[in-house]
Amino acid sequence: MTEIMRGPAERVVIVGSGLAGLMTALALAPRPVLLVTRSALGTEASSPLAQGGIAASLAADDSAELHLADTLVAGDGLCDPDIARGIIAEAPGAISALERLGVRFDRDASGALLFGLEAAHSRRRIVHAGGDATGAAVMRALVAAVRKTPSIAVLEGFEARRLVTEGSIVTGLLCANGTAAPVLPTASVVLATGGLCGLYDATTNPAGNIGQGIALAARAGAILADMEFVQFHPTALDSARKPLALISEAVRGEGARLRNERGEFFMERIAGGELASRDVVARAISAELARGGRVYLDAREALGNRFQSRFPAIAALCHEAGIDPTRDLIPVRPAAHYHMGGVATDAEGRSSVRGLWVAGEAASTGLHGANRLASNSLLEAAVMGLRVARSIDASAYASSDVPALGALPTAPDASAVRPIVSRHLGVLRDAAGLESAIAALLALAEGCSAATDAAAVALTMAVSAHLRTESRGAHTRIDYPAKDLLSRRRFITLAEALDSAHSLATPRLARSA
After folding, report:
1. Mean pLDDT across 352-358
2. Which residue from 173, 327, 346, 487 has the fewest beta carbons nearer than 10 Å?
3. Topology given in CATH for the domain delimited by 406-512
4. Cα(65)–Cα(67) distance, rounded to whole angstroms?
């Protein structure tokens, strides 16, 4: 049974407690904020798992223009250059803001920031905290800051089920846990719910990251963007662990090399070698695995006994799997890691639905294009969290009454969707596989089971991938290996995806009859 949980008229409701959500909440102080999180504050999110760092052009030999150039190359023609330029320019301010909130970035003996190198970066510009545990270090500081901020109330153990709207205007949020289903009246909702890579069997993300924020926005009529672009991290630790442990490309930045079971350093044949962009490396590893081979990361010569001190968190993950990276080869495989698409937003994080802002991986700002540049994601989360807060403070949306609600939607469950997505929306795609996925997902998306929301999100991915008849960035069509000369970002609503799915399903059904 639903009940109204009222609060101050100016209250902002934020869903999600990763970096983007916490940054937004802290930047809004002293304005009242209610932060809704499915688990304990700051735990079930991708942010704490980030081993890399934050890309910021702060070194003496670097500049925002060089960082922008690398971002545009990685984005493979689909970045929004103005958005990318603006976010990158605000990196120094974001680093300073995080330090004021208690984050201690790694520095040398003289007090200067230490910079790491990652794939497709032309300079050492990755700022770390706690070595290879940047995400965890940043989140510890922000969680502590949130706990100390009187204007932020936290509602733990509650899952957002639906945005409440009147026309195309947000009026509240419907949540639920095992015993209660409160409606939170508000004129300002921020979705910072993370990505959708939990829709894959092989992923480095928490299993609960199934695109629920995207589903909430899509069912409220929001425009989505670039849904077909999923980045597969090339070097997840190939083990039975769920989610798969990540072997950061910073390890390759320090000289570790990829080799197959024959002992061949197969990246020597590919432009960019070990530090080519993630899509290139993921495809190369996938090709080795497809022929029945195995792939390993060899850090023995480059790092040797320094591995433990340089990458303590990764060393612990390897030891957990029975691997000593100072002496053993590390088995790796690609895994779904980051979604470049999401809810389309403007430069301030506003969606097409009035009163709805989106930040972090759930959003598609245009920064990442077809393939995210490493460590730009934490940068975007921090910068956009600050921007969203400023945008909300400058808005004058008034709360209105919450309309009558229907039945409480079933708790989302992606178990029926995960095999479809894993089989047909992986590193390599083709029309036949995508059409099979669309047919299977359509029935689930239009049903009323626990799979409905996850299937709706996956359907927009599959339809967008089917419509993009080219290979670009992280999207590879084996039946369309070339790039189009003219290519643009793809914007789509859930209604449009359903229409396209029905159009594809009709001739398929006719052929089967």
Report:
1. 97
2. 327
3. Methane Monooxygenase Hydroxylase; Chain G, domain 1 (1.20.58)
4. 5
The number of residues in the chain equals 513
Closest-CA residue to 434 (of 447, 448, 446, 420): 420
| pTM of the predicted model as reported, rounded to 2 decimal places | 0.92
Q: How far apart are CA 39 and CA 158, in angstroms?
A: 7
Distance CA(187)–CA(398), nearest Å, equals 6
Element (H, E) at 373: none
Find out whether 248 and 445 touch, Cβ atoms under 8 Å. no
Mean pLDDT calculated for residue range 285-314? 94
| Domain spans, the chain | 233-334, 406-512
Predicted confidence at residue 379, as pLDDT, reads 97
The DSSP annotation for 259-321 comes to: EETT---GGGGSTTGGGS-HHHHHHHHHHHHHTT--EEEE-TTTTGGGHHHH-HHHHHHHHHT
488 is catalytic: no
Average per-residue pLDDT in the chain?
A: 94
- Return d(Cα 279, Cα 53) in angstroms, integer: 19
Sorting pLDDT into bands at 50, 70 and 90, what band is 511?
low
Q: Are 259 and 290 in contact (CB under 8 A)?
A: no
Torsion angle defined by CA atoms of residues 154, 157, 162 and 165, in that order, rounded to the nearest 10 degrees: -20
CATH number of 233-334: 3.90.700.10
Are 254 and 303 in contact by the 8 Å Cβ rule? The answer is yes
Backbone φ and ψ for 424, nearest 5 degrees, come out as -110, -10
User: CA nearest 175: which of 20, 23, 15, 24?
Assistant: 15
Mean pLDDT of 447-462: 97
* Single-letter code of the amino acid located at 57: S
Residue with tokens 């299937």: 455
338's enclosing H/E stretch is strand 330-339
Cα atoms in the 13 Å half-sphere on the side-chain side of 312: 7
Six token digits for residue 92: 């120094």
Point out the catalytic residue in the list 125, 278, 429, 472. 278
Partners of residue 480 on adjacent β-strands: 477
Q: Is the pLDDT of residue 280 over 60?
A: yes
3-class DSSP state of 279: helix
Segment 150-202, tens digit of pLDDT? 999 999 999 999 999 998 899 999 999 988 899 999 999 999 999 999 999 99
Q: Does the fold of domain 406-512 match that of domain 233-334?
A: no
